[in-house]
Structures
1.
Amino acid sequence: MEGPAKFASLDPDLSRRLHRALTASKDELYEVLLDPSMEVLQAAVRNPSLAENHLLALLKRRDLSEDFLKALYRNRFVAESHGLKVAMVHNPGTPGQIILALLPHLYLFELVDICFLAGGTPDQKLAAERAIVQRLPTTPLGNKLTLARRGTSTVVEALLREGDSRLVEPCLDNPRLKESTIFQFLNSSKSTAETISMVARHPRWKGRPNLQLAILKNPRTPAVWFNLFLSHFGVADLQGIIASRRLTPAQKKLVTDELKRRGHG
C-alpha cells in the first residue's frame, strides 16, 4: 500500500518526491517528470492523473534507463497510442528487442525519419532500414519513387536491384547512392538497354571508368555507348572487353574495329 509508511525509511527528500509523483495533479506531473530519479519516474507513471501527453513529454528525455523503458513499454497508453510507439522508437535508450517489436506498427515514412534521426543509434537506423526493405514488395510506386530520392544507401540499393526503369533515374539522383551499387546493377540480369543508357548519360555517373567498363561488358548495351566510350580506354582494356564471353557478336565487332583502327587488329 502506498503512503507515508512506505517512504518512512527513505531519504526524506526522496520520500517527498515519491509521494508527490504519486499524488501530483495533471499540471504538476510535467514538473515531476523532469526528476532525475528513475524511481520517481516509475512512481509518476502510476499516478492516476497520468495521460498520453505526459508520456510524450517524458520520452523526449535522453537519460531514461533501459529498465525504465522496458517497464514503460508495457504501459497501456503505449499499447493504445501510435504516437507513443513512435516516441519510444525515437528514444535512444529503448532496447533493440522493443524497437523490433514496435517497427511493424510505424508508417513507411516514419521509418525513413528514423534512418536520419539526429542522435539515433546505429541499431535503430539499421532496424528501420530493414523494415523498409521488407515492405518494398508491397509498397506503391509513388512511395517507391519518394524512397528512391530520399532513402538511405541501403534502401536505394534495394530499389535499384528491382530493375524498374521508372525507379532508376531517381535512384541515380540520390546523393547517397554508391558507385559499387551501380556497378553491381550493371552486371546483373536486371539491367536493360534502357536502364544502362540512363547510367551512361547521367551527369554524375557517366564519366566513371569502372562504370563505363561495366557498360561495355554488358550484352544489352546499345551500340551508341560503344561508339562513345571505347576511345576512352587503352588497348589492354579493349582486349579485356573483347575477351568477355557475355558480348554479342555485333558488340565484339565494334571492339575489334576499334582495335584495328589503332593498329592492333
2.
Amino acid sequence: MREKNTEQLFAELKEDADVKAFLARNKDELLPPVSEYLRGLLQEKGLRLSEIIKASHLNRNYAYHILSGEKPHPSRGKLLALALAMKLNLDETQHLLLCGGHSTLYPRSPWDSVIISAVEQGKSVSDTNLLLEQLGEKEMLG
C-alpha cells in the first residue's frame, strides 16, 4: 500500500545522496515488476492464463516467461497485446506500461490513439491490428 505521493518521493530522492538506501526504504512505494502486476490482475479478474496467451497472439513460451519474470522487460507492443487480451481498462493498461518501463499511451500519437480507442472499446488484438493496418500504422507485434 502506498503512503507517499510522487512529490514526497521526489523530495526525498533529491535530499538522499544514497539511491540504494532510498530504493530499499521505499520498496513498497515503487512500481512492481511486470510479472507481479500481471499475475495480480489475472487472479483479481479470474482470468485463465491459457486463454489470455491465445488471445494475445504471443508465443506461448515467451508469454510464460513474461509472467514468470524471466522476461522482465517485454516490448511495449507485447504488453499492449496482453492488456487487450485481458480486457484491461485504460488505467490498468497505463500502469502495466509503467511497470514495464515504457511510456504511457499518448493521445497525440496516432498509433497510441488507435490503441487507446481499442482498449476503451474492448477490441481484440486481431481487430486492433486490422485497424492499425487500415490506418497505415504498424501492427502491435509487427
3.
Amino acid sequence: MKMKHFFGKPDGGEWRVTAQTVLCGEAIAHMPYIATSYDAPLHPPGWRFSGVSSHLRYTTNDERGRLNQNPGILGRAAATCAALIPIRKNEAWWSMAQDERRAIYARSVHLEIGLDYLPEIARQLFHSRDAGEPFDFLTWFEFPPEATDRFDDLVGRLRATEEWQYVDREIDIRLTRINEEEAEE
C-alpha cells in the first residue's frame, strides 16, 4: 500500500479547482490547483491531504465480485472532470463495532448506489484516519464532463442516506484536468 497525496496549490497542478463547497464542518483554504502524487515534497505550498488505498472494509465477497464486473477506470482521457471529497465521520460512528457500521453501510445501500454509476464515474477511496490526518476518508472521482449531472445525482443520493448522518466534516472540491496547452503557459 502506498500513500497518495493531494496538494492544494496556489500555482500549477494537474487539476484546476472550479468549485469548493463546505457541506459541513470547518473549511479549508481555497487553492486554485490540485496536484496528486505518491511522492510527497517535504514542504509544499498550500495544503496536503494524504491517504492509503486499502482493502474494501465494508464489502462482502459477493459485493466485491459485482464491483469487479464493471469497474470504473481512473485516468481515462475522456474523464476531464474530477472531485476530491474529504470526509470525516463523528465519534458516534467510530465508537460503533465494525458489524454495526457495516449494517448502516448496507442499509444505506452505499454499494448499490455506486454501482448505478459505474463505469462512467470512476472512484478511489483513500483511508486517512489512522495516519492522523484531518479527514477520515479522501474520495477521488473522475468522470467525463457530460456525466456531471449524474455525478451530482450520485453524491446527492449518498448524502441522503443513514450513513451520512455520521458525517461531521465534508468538503466537495470540483476540478477540471489541465490540458497540455494550459500546462505550458
